[in-house]
Design goal:
about 180 residues, rod-shaped
């Protein structure tokens, strides 16, 4: 009788461990999927970059340093794996291009630029939604990593907290463009 009770307890504990582990795997895969969705959207935005930069360059010859910086960031991002920090750097630089464009009324009237800007706006909206989904998924994952008793499973199998997308301090201020 005692052996049966011990066996039942062992089976229950093993079941709880397996269920918790599988839950971590599902959440971790959801985070990876969210990262991939953001990555796809960033690459779509990158595909617009050469056309947008060429259009802007035609009107803003002296802004080439900002445009070159964005091109360099694009190249570096494509060589590396997804990271919240790299994606944030690109967002910051990309905002500069839009701010530069706002200072050139004839550029804002260019139909090619308007078309690219419309595509960009659509991608940006999707990117914002993808970031929200990513943050929600990471928050659920991080809560499980920190909660008792699942934190014991997390430590046992090296599930670690993940970074959220955050608004950095530079985004909280207006972008300043000096001419």
């Amino acid at each position: 009788m005692l052996i049966n009770i011990i066996l039942i307890v062992v089976v229950i504990i093993a079941g709880v461990l397996l269920a918790s582990y599988n839950s971590f795997i599902r959440l971790n895969n959801s985070v990876k999927q969210s990262e991939s969705n953001i990555d796809v959207l960033l690459n779509q935005r990158f595909d617009l970059l050469p056309n947008l930069i060429e259009t802007v360059k035609g009107y803003t010859k002296h802004e080439s340093s900002t445009l070159n910086e964005i091109t360099d960031l694009r190249t570096n991002y494509q060589k590396s794996n997804f990271s919240v920090e790299e994606a944030s750097k690109i967002d910051k630089s990309f905002s500069k291009v839009i701010a530069i464009a706002e200072n050139y009324p004839e550029l804002k009237a260019n139909t090619n630029f308007l078309s690219l800007q419309s595509e960009l706006k659509e991608i940006e909206n999707k990117l914002n939604s993808a970031r929200l989904i990513y943050n929600n998924t990471v928050t659920r994952y991080n809560t499980k990593v920190e909660s008792v008793p699942s934190n014991l499973i997390a430590k046992m199998f090296n599930f670690e907290k993940k970074d959220l997308f955050k608004l950095d301090d530079s985004k909280k201020e207006n972008i300043k463009i000096n001419f």
